[in-house]
Each structure stands twice: as C-alpha cells, then as structure tokens.
Amino acid sequence: MNRKYELVYVVSPDATDAQVADLHSQVEQIAQRLGGTIDKTDNWGRRKLAYEIGPHKEGTYVLETIDGGGELMKEIDRRLKVSDLIIRHLVVRIDEDQTKIERTRTKRTDSVRRRRVARGLPPDRQPGEGQRSDMEDDDRFDLTEVER
Amino acid sequence: MNGKRGFGGGGGRGKAGGQGGQQGKDGQRRPMFRRRKVCKFCADKIDDINYKDTKLLMPFVPERAKILPRRISGTCALHQRKLRTAIMRARQLALIPYTAE
Predict the structure, then answer these.
(1) Which of A6, A59, A72, B16 supports an S-S bond with A10, CB 3.0-4.6 Å?
(2) Pick from A53, A104, A145: which is nearest to B47 by CB?
(3) pLDDT less than 50: residues of chain B
(4) Counting one residue from A and one from B, how many pairs have CB atoms under 8 Å apart?
C-alpha cells in the first residue's frame, strides 16, 4: 500500500549547506524508520520568495519525492512544523495524478495515431509536415489580448 | 463605410493587443468581432498543471496577483480547476505572490 508523495520545504537562508544536508538526512531517517524510501531529491538552491515570510526574503528550496504510507508523511509533516530552520513546507500526494496524466497522454497519442492511419498516413508525424496548428499559432489565445 | 467603422473598433481594442492589421481584416467581415478564446492547456496539450512550474502559472496571475477568471483567459472548466489548485499550492510555497505589494 505504497503511495508517492512530493515534499517541498523552504529552508531559511541563514542555514548553512551542512544544515540543509542535515535536514535531508533527518527526513531520510524518518522515512527509513517508517518503511519508506526517498526516490529523488532535488535542491533548487536559493530563490527569492514571492512575498516576505517574517524576516525572510529568500529561501533554499528542496524537493523530495517519497515513497511511503500516510503515517510516514504525517510524521514528517509534524517534524517539519516543529523545525525552526524551515519556513514553509508542502506535502502533496502525486501517484494518482501521475497515473491520470499518463492515461490521458496515452489516450491522446493513440487516438491521434488511429486517426492518422485512417487517413492513410504513417502513424507518427513526419518531420516537416505542415499542420494547421503551426500556421494558426498567432491567432490563438494569448493573454496580452484580454477583453473586459 | 461599414468596413471603416469596423476598423475603428478594432483600433480601440488594439490597445490591449496591438495587432492592428489582423483585427482590421476581421473587422471588415464583422464589425463586432470577438476573438474566439481557446483554452491554453487544451490547445498546447499540457496535461500536467504543476505548482512547481512558475513560468506556466505566472501569466494567469496578472499584476494584482489575482487568479485570472475563465471568462477572460478562456481556459476550460477542467483546466481552470487544476490551475487554481496549482496556483494555491505555489502560493503556499511563496513561488507566486498572494497579493501585489
């Protein structure tokens, strides 16, 4: 009964690299203890915050993809809330969305291929093949042209 | 005459877009032409509206940082809903502002 979660946390800009690494290992330890694994870690580095959070104007963003159960995420969430170094964090479940996205994507490519075959064309688009969407591009939705 | 009036109307709206020539052409056909709005996500086949993708979300939160309504952006109901959750998540992480300062 394993689910996939995404965890993003914003670490205070005062924290050193070692402290950020320490936080990561803490999360990893909790994950291991409660029978989960970290699939991927991505440090986005220092970014400007869109708004000030307390005294902070910047923060170090870290993204972790975690495989585990709900109890594990609850524990991680609790620990991150307590931590002083972390200014914001967000836990999102992603496995359901991912399968949904995958399904729509395959459905679309399948239907495109089927229609192309029905028209007597090879199933994949040939390079240099002119399709209407390329020419109509500028006539499409663009946000500069809003009507009020 | 009719065409000329259409031209003028197009110019008025051109303030926002500034594509004068194209609007003139449409104006001749129908004076009260309204550009058909297309859902960006349907048109570009973007399945995944992700909160991490600030570049994708930013056009939907103009100056005041409010979410652009469907009636203006033309986004379809399904994608607007997804867009909304994505924007709200991004706001929590301070990737997108709640308000303009």
Answers:
(1) A59
(2) A104
(3) 1-24
(4) 72
Is pLDDT at A137 greater than 90 in this prediction? no
pLDDT grade, residue A130 (50/70/90)?
low
- The position carrying tokens 């000030």 is A52
Nearest by CB to residue A90, choosing from B13, B68, B89, is B89
A131: confidence class by pLDDT, cuts 50, 70, 90: low
* Full-model pTM: 0.72
Residue B31, Cα to own-chain centre: how many angstroms?
Answer: 22
CA A60 – CA A58 distance, rounded (Å): 7
Per-position DSSP letters for B6-38, written without gaps between them: HHHHHHHHHHHH--HHHHHHHHHH-TT--PPP-
Helix H or strand E segment including A85: none
What is the token pair recorded at B89?
Answer: 């998540």
* Residues B9-25: tens digit of each pLDDT: 333 343 344 344 444 45
- The 10 Å Cβ neighbour count of residue A4 is 17
H-type alpha helices, chain A: 17-33, 70-82, 95-118, 132-135
Torsion of CA B41, B45, B51, B54, to 10 degrees: -80
Q: Measure the CA dihedral B9/B12/B15/B19, to 10°.
A: 30
Q: How big is chain B, counted in residues?
A: 101
State both tokens at B10. Answer: 């197009």
Instruction: Give me the interface pTM, i.e. the ipTM.
Output: 0.76
